[in-house]
């Protein structure tokens, strides 16, 4: 069985800049406020930090990624291995240039919808009623009110279990109803969307 101490020791050579918290109570990170601890909770400083951690983490250590915790119930026994939660400026920012919107995968869907509307870009308003984050929206092709992620996504950045960066085109995401066929070990870090000009008030 992998212990918190063993995981921390395995990650030490990577000289990580993010936070590593052993035996962290995951109930604090879910909307239902229930559940046991993570062996180790990791909040990477940025994409490079995440890649460095995954590159040295032994293959037998389970990896679990969590988002806002809005649709998550953690068992009382907790979650074994390394639990990763993206956040901060590196994963929580939005940049808009023309009709292109880039959002970190820790950005709440509602915040993304609001930013697009304020920039006069239509097409992402359906995110307004989804209580999750961009990362979850990519993984499940989230949608509502006649719109879904596949309608507006251009590409997504992700890190695999070995710490390698991938940039997936829309076609490579393999979207279907509430599903994408991208490899399960990919951890999405950023999404690029294309909106369409619209009226701020109408949006």
Automatic annotation (TrEMBL):
Transmembrane segments: none
Keyword Transcription set for record: no
Domain FAD-binding PCMH-type: 33-198
GO molecular function, one term: FAD binding
Assigned GO CC terms: cytosol
Pfam family, one: FAD_binding_4
One annotated GO biological process: cell wall organization
Keywords associated with the record: FAD, Flavoprotein
PROSITE patterns: FAD_PCMH (PS51387)
Entry protein name: UDP-N-acetylenolpyruvoylglucosamine reductase
Protein source organism: Methylobacterium aquaticum
């Amino acid at each position: 069985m992998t212990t918190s101490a063993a995981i921390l020791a395995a990650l030490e050579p990577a000289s990580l800049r993010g936070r590593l918290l052993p035996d962290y109570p995951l109930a604090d990170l879910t909307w239902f406020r229930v559940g046991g601890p993570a062996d180790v909770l990791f909040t990477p400083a940025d994409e490079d930090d995440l890649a460095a951690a995954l590159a040295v983490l032994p293959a037998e250590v389970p990896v679990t990624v969590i988002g806002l915790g809005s649709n998550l119930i953690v068992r009382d026994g907790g979650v074994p291995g390394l639990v990763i939660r993206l956040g901060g400026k590196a994963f929580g920012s939005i940049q808009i240039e023309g009709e292109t919107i880039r959002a970190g995968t820790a950005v709440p869907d509602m915040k993304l919808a609001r930013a697009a509307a304020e920039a006069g870009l239509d097409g992402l308003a359906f995110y307004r009623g989804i209580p999750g984050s961009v990362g979850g929206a990519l993984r499940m092709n989230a949608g509502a009110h006649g719109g879904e992620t596949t309608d507006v996504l251009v590409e997504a950045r992700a890190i695999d279990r070995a710490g390698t960066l991938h940039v997936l085109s829309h076609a490579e995401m393999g979207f279907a109803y509430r599903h994408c066929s991208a490899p399960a070990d990919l951890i999405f870090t950023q999404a690029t969307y294309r909106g369409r000009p619209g009226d701020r008030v109408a949006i």
